[in-house]
């Protein structure tokens, strides 16, 4: 939940990141651009309630994994 509720966050550039955790960008409604490296592990709820258009686009390029709890 690192950036949870950062409603003014617009861009993420993180080429060295290999995993996006549960609800990391939850409710980041202004998020419109992300740039990660290759082989990024993304949980299903990483972008929950974030920009819906962005999430739809990401789903085409990333494998989204269901969060299995703690």
Overall description:
With 70 residues, this protein is of the alpha/beta class. The protein is built from one helix and five strands. Strands 2-4-5 form a three-stranded parallel beta sheet, with no helix packed on it. Strand 4 (41-43), helix 1 and strand 5 (64-65) form a beta-alpha-beta unit.
Shape: globular
Strand-residue proportion: 15-25%
Give me the secondary-structure category: alpha/beta
Helix content: 10-25%
Q: Please tally the helical runs, counting DSSP H or I stretches of 4 or more residues.
A: 1
Radius of gyration: 11 Å
> How do the helices and strands follow one another from N- to C-terminus?
EEEEHE
Overall mean pLDDT: 82
Unreliably modeled segments? none
Give the biggest beta sheet. Answer: 3 strands, parallel
Biggest sheet strand line-up: 2-4-5
The tally of beta strands, per DSSP, is 5
How many angstroms separate the termini? 13 Å
SSE inventory with pairings:
Elements: E1 11-14, E2 19-20, E3 33-36, E4 41-43, H1 52-61, E5 64-65
Parallel strand pairs: 1-3, 2-4, 4-5
Quick synopsis:
With 70 residues, this protein is of the alpha/beta class. Helix content is 14%, strand content 21%. The longest helix has 10 residues, at 52-61.
Tags for this model:
14% helix; three-stranded parallel β-sheet; 5 strands; two-stranded parallel sheet; globular; 21% strand; 70 residues; 1 helix; alpha/beta
């Amino acid at each position: 939940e690192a950036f949870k509720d950062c409603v003014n966050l617009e861009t993420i550039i993180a080429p060295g990141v290999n995993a996006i955790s549960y609800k990391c960008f939850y409710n980041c409604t202004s998020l419109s651009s992300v740039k990660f490296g290759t082989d990024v592990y993304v949980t299903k709820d990483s972008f929950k309630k974030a920009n819906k258009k962005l999430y739809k686009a990401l789903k085409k390029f990333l494998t989204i994994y269901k969060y299995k709890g703690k």
